[in-house]
C-alpha cells in the first residue's frame, strides 16, 4: 500500500471509526440537508434559517453538500488507466478534510500578524468568508479593502481558489465573541438540565445574534417527551437569558446520521476526482437500502460511444468503492449504482 493510501486509512481510522467519533456522530448530527432544502424555500423561511447556517458553519458542523456540479469534457480512458486513478481518488480525502480547517487558520494567522481585532465566519459550500472587524466607522472604511485583498491573495497563494470575502464593521457591544460566550453558557446549561432530568437528546444548538434567538433540539426518535423537554429548556432560558427564544425540536435517526457521516465524503471525492468525466451530480438517499447512487451525466444517449462511456464511469466508481481503504470506511454496506444520461434516462 503506497504512502497516500496509508495516510487515508490512518485519517479515517482516527476520525471516523473510534469510540470517541462514534459518540460524536450521535451528539453532533449535521444539518447539511436542511441547508440544501432551504435553498428552494420562500424568502421568509430562508431568512429564518440564516442564523442556524452561521452556527453550523462556524462550529464545524457543516458537511459536504448534495449535488455538487462538475462540468467538463469527457476524456476516454482504458480500464487500466481507470484503475491507476483509484489511488489518486483516495489521496483526495486527506486534503479535503484538512482544507476547511486550514482556511480559517490561514486567515487568523494573516490578520493576527497585522494586529486586527476580528472574528471570522467561514461558509465552505458558498466559498465565502465573512470577517467582522472591530473599531470605529472611520477605521473600518480605512482598512476594509486591505483586509479583503490580504485574505484573497493569501488563499489564492495557498491554492484554495477564488473566495468571496465580505468585511463587516462591528459597532461597540456587538462583538461575535460576546455572543459565543452567551451561546456556550446557555447550551451547556440546557444540556446539564436535560441530563439531570433523564431525557434522551443528541444536541442542543443555540443561536444568538442581534436579530434572532433560537434553540434547535435534536432528539432520538425514541424520545417521546417533547413537551416536557421544551418546558425544561424554557426554564433554563428564563434563568440565563432575556427575551424570547424560539424552540424547535428535530427528531433524528442516529443510524442514518452515521451513514451520512461516512458516505458523503466518499461521494464528494468521486465528484471532485472525476473532473474529466461528464458527471453533473450524484443523487442518493439514506432512507433506502441498498443505498442508491444515481449518477447523472451530460452524456447524450445518441452519441456513438454513449454506453461505453457510461460503463467506464460506472466501472471506475465501483473500483473506487471496492478499494481497500474505502471498504474500510463503508464496510459491507450494500449499494446500487444507476447511470443516467443527460435526459435523465436510466441506462444500466
From TrEMBL:
<dbReference type="InterPro" id="IPR025436">
    <property type="entry name" value="DUF4179"/>
</dbReference>
<keyword id="KW-1133">Transmembrane helix</keyword>
<feature type="transmembrane region" description="Helical">
    <location>
        <begin position="55"/>
        <end position="75"/>
    </location>
</feature>
<keyword id="KW-0812">Transmembrane</keyword>
<dbReference type="Pfam" id="PF13786">
    <property type="entry name" value="DUF4179"/>
</dbReference>
<dbReference type="Pfam" id="PF13222">
    <property type="entry name" value="DUF4030"/>
</dbReference>
<feature type="domain" description="DUF4179">
    <location>
        <begin position="53"/>
        <end position="108"/>
    </location>
</feature>
<protein>
    <submittedName>
        <fullName>DUF4030 domain-containing protein</fullName>
    </submittedName>
</protein>
<dbReference type="InterPro" id="IPR025108">
    <property type="entry name" value="DUF4030"/>
</dbReference>
<keyword id="KW-0472">Membrane</keyword>
